[in-house]
Structure formats: C-alpha cells, structure tokens
Amino acid sequence: MEKEIITDSIITAKEALKKAPKLEGITTGIEGLDNLFFTAVIENNKPQKKPLGGMPKYSVCNITGINDTGKSLMAEQFAIHRAQYEKVCFVTVETPANYVVASMKLRAAAMGVDAKVIDENIIFIDATSHYKLRDEIPTFLNTLAYAIKEYDIKDVVIDSITGFFENKEMMARTIVRMIYNFLKKWYQTSILVSQKRSGHDLLSSEAAGGYAVGHIVDGTIVLSKEVIDSSYKAKMYKKPIGEIIRLFRIDGCRMSGHDTKVRTLEITDTGIVKIGNPIGGES
Q: How far apart are CA 180 and CA 146, in angstroms?
C-alpha cells in the first residue's frame, strides 16, 4: 500500500505566525465578565497583568451547566450586545427562532439596547425546525458558511451544541471537533452552550457527551446552583435558608489568562445575568 503524505499539513512557525490573530478582547455585555480575562507582559523584568477588556477575540467558548443556571441568558445577552457592532449568527437548536427573538426583544429593552439591532444584525439559523441541520453536520456547516459569507458575520452563538449529538453521544467528540475547526477557520468569536446532567459535579466542565466539548474548545465557563438548605451554607453564602444561589467559574481559557475564582452569579427580574464577587471575598 502506497504511503500517503499530506504535505499541506506541514507548515513552518514563521508561516503559521502570519495567520495568527492579534490577542485582543471583545466586550460581552455581561456585567462583571469582561475584566476577568487578561494577558501578561514583562515590564521592568517583572510580569504584569494587562486586562483584555473582554473575552479573547476569535475564541470558541463553551458555557455549561445544569438547567436554570443562566446559560441561554448569557448567550442571548452576548448576541444582543455584539449585534450593536457587527453581525451575529444565532443557531437555535432547542427553541424555534420566533420564540427566541421574542425573548431577545424583551431582554434588549432591559439592557437598554435598541430592539432594531436584533432585526438588522442577528441572523438566525433555526435547527429546531429543520432536522437535517441537527442530523447532518456537513449540511449544517455549509448552511453556516453561506450565512457567514452572505451577511459578513463575525460572531456565532450555538444554543445548544448538545442538541447535535443528543442521540449519538459516542459521536460527540467528532461532532464538536468538526464545528470547532469550522469556527476557527472562519475566525468567528463564538459562544457554545452545552448541558450538564444533575449527576455531574456542579463546578466541573463535564457536559452531556462526556468531556467532548470542554477538551476541544478554547475555554469553558461553568455555571451551577445550590439550594441554601443548612445554616452552614446560609453563613457561607450570606443567604437565608430556602433561597437558591447561582455560581460561576471560568474553567480554562487557552488563549489568555483568566480569573480562577468561584463567583456568585445573579439573574435579575428582567433576565439579565451579572457576575458578582468571589465566594470568600476578593484577595
């Protein structure tokens, strides 16, 4: 059998560097999140932290958690905020697009964003109404490529990526890898939402489909919630017994430095997500 050599896969560091994007942050519209990413530079022979001012541009970030922790709210908030500056593609896999856009209109009002930006700058791909998009990944990626070229899209949100492998979890790693490689090739700053089961550790990055998502993407944000059911928790979280506290943690980001603390997460009455102080206070 003749050996196959893929010469196109061999590239010098100098050539690879020409295609490397500059490390910079883009704002997310999520209060308390943008100042948690940083880079380190050497000044006077000492490393100094320099805030990025947002999540790394062109990164593919996974938001994971059990139900009712704020994953979809964060994803929609990011899409609405970014739509003020550039075109955003929102791939809805769980809820039909007409319901999502109605929810976004209400959230835009709460964020103080003109609802027209949703009409003009958010392009939906509705995978809930078109099963071939969920079942045939090449068809989905061809559709997404068409939308990116047609509308000059810069950001992609997928809610949820779990929907692409919910009946074939053994294929999860392959599917996530295909989508990740596509988003990187097209230089898209992306938010993926993935679901966890209640049996998973609350603040781990494990999602349905095993570790497929967390091991492939550039970074993971983990959300969780706990019921205050003891005086110990009431004292630690400074909440009365019977309330729920939501928690936030950046589990990793290979494109930049990041805050590692477990923080509180608040969902306001209008559905706006805010990242709060670390548990135990700032150090």
A: 17
